[in-house]
Inverse folding.
């Protein structure tokens, strides 16, 4: 069977590639490999892993080759192992998706450096590809090059991919400058209860955008004479609504003032990127942004989004719950300062290197070494606030950390309707987590973790929290259907294994 099997797979790959009208070089670039490697694979002269077949299937969008990848992915975790060594933080999901949407502002070529290879990015790339935007991975697969077409083909939009992310809502801001009439599906994302889009619609109405929603689709119409006559006051200090207002303001021929703006990390990355496009933004890092728009943007630009504070928090939590000494490199510390201050009060023992700039030249990074720490519960409740508060996406990690601490910790997740509820899944791994109401849980520590088998909760951060608890629990645990984790973390299992975890990936075929 051996060689024959490779030849048959090679033919399937060649057929799928030709069906897409791609050259071997084109496929090689998408995979971050060489043309000669693709040639060997297609001739059956190269041993090929299941993972590679899956990547080829994904790149070629081919059902036949993606067989074996289409089933859900699960994790088998052998817990109770200490982590050690060091690990780098990747770029953030939330900045990367905003920047991908922002490329729609530019007629020129955009190169984004070290874009996180995560499902959320793949979904937005699928949507962009379906409307005619050319995107390809370059420089060994680390960077993304994006070139929009002269005219977008919005009728061909991949609605299924679009529906799986909330980020597609950020198409509204750029598109209102390109089209008078268009439609996008209702925004998806994590299942965290109702997430309003009303603040987006209220903000974008200042630019003439009117939306009617029917049958799961937003129908947008733009009255191009309508222009913001006065400052836009956001009704919520949300991240994506601020980004949408910025994206709309970027190509408005004039000055737009946005008040009650989020100053969070992804918004800052977007502002730095807009500056590269020639759009001046005053007030970055504050809640009032003044945008000097440019009606036509046609520049070849190169931008390096910054590291993900939420991934940094995830790795910090991994070290704490497994009682490990671990160095987390490239931590965007200005977006983790409150978390660190709270953890220090709880007894966190850590060291920070001198700060250095991220590749965007603006964000401050540090290398953080975490030592096994004897933690006690905080005196006050843990609760999020818009930046510069404790990051909303970091709250769930405090549940796992609080479980290892002596005493009771109240966690008040006022933001999301469903998220605190998912934290009670930790009880199945031995933690004492009581749901006081849909927004508040009481965690009693210290825990004695035990292994378990469960489905991933349908929310990114609670899902990772469960994974971390499994890594701390002696014995073998199974976490099923981890798409939601892959939405926001690049090769998390492999990277955790590189610092001492034992996590095996397996799939249903
Ligand atoms: C792609 C992206 O960047 N996603 C992030 C972004 O989503 P995004 O900006 O889309 O978040 P939402 O607009 O859904 O806001 C989250 C929740 O907070 C509530 N809210 C928000 C601000 C406010 O001043 N008052 C208020 O009540 C909203 O009603 C909603 O229930 O921000 C969220 C909150 O930081 C993060 O969890 C997401 O990871
Ligand atoms: C809630 C999150 O993301 P999204 O806005 O993509 O659903 C998250 O990153 O935790």
């Amino acid at each position: 069977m051996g060689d024959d099997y490779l030849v048959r797979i090679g033919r399937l790959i060649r057929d799928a590639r030709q069906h897409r009208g791609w050259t071997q070089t084109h496929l090689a670039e998408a995979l971050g490999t060489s043309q000669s490697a693709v040639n060997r694979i297609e001739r059956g002269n190269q041993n090929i892993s299941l993972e590679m077949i899956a990547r080829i299937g994904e790149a070629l969008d081919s059902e036949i080759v993606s067989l074996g990848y289409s089933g859900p992915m699960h994790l088998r975790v052998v817990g109770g192992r200490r982590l050690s060594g060091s690990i780098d933080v990747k770029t953030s999901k939330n900045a990367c998706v905003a920047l991908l949407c922002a490329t729609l502002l530019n007629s020129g070529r955009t190169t984004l450096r070290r874009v996180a290879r995560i499902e959320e990015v793949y979904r937005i790339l699928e949507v962009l590809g379906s409307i005619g935007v050319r995107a390809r991975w370059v420089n060994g697969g680390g960077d993304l090059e994006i070139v929009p077409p002269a005219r977008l083909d919005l009728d061909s939009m991949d609605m299924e991919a679009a529906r799986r992310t909330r980020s597609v809502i950020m198409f509204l801001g750029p598109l209102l400058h390109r089209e008078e009439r268009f439609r996008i599906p209702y925004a998806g994302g994590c299942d965290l209860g109702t997430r309003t889009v009303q603040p987006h619609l209220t903000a974008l109405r200042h630019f003439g955008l009117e939306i009617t929603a029917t049958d799961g689709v937003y129908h947008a119409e733009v009255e191009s004479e309508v222009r913001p006559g006065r400052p836009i006051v956001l009704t919520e200090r949300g991240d994506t609504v601020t980004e949408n207002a910025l994206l709309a303001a970027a190509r408005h021929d004039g000055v737009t003032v946005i008040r009650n703006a989020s100053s969070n990390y992804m918004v800052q990355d977007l502002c730095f990127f807009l500056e590269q496009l020639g759009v001046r933004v005053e007030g970055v890092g504050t809640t009032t942004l003044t945008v000097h728009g440019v009606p036509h943007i046609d520049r070849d630009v190169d931008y390096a989004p910054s590291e993900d504070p939420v991934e940094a928090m995830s790795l910090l939590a991994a070290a704490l719950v497994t009682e490990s000494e671990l160095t987390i490199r490239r931590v965007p510390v200005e977006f983790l300062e409150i978390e660190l201050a709270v953890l220090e009060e709880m007894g966190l023992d850590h060291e920070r290197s001198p700060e250095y700039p991220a590749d965007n030249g603006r964000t401050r990074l540090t290398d953080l070494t975490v030592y096994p720490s004897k933690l006690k519960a905080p005196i006050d409740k843990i609760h999020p606030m818009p930046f510069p508060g404790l990051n909303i996406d970091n709250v769930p990690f405090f549940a796992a950390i609080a479980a290892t601490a002596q005493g009771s910790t109240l966690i008040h997740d006022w933001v999301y309707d469903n998220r605190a509820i998912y934290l009670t899944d930790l009880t199945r791994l031995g933690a004492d987590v009581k749901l006081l109401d849909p927004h508040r849980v009481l965690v009693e520590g210290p825990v004695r973790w035990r292994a378990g088998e469960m489905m991933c909760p349908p929310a990114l951060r609670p899902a990772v929290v469960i994974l971390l608890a499994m890594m701390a629990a002696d014995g073998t645990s199974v976490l099923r259907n981890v798409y939601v984790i892959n939405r926001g973390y690049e090769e998390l299992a492999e990277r955790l294994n590189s610092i001492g975890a034992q996590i095996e990936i397996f799939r249903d075929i």
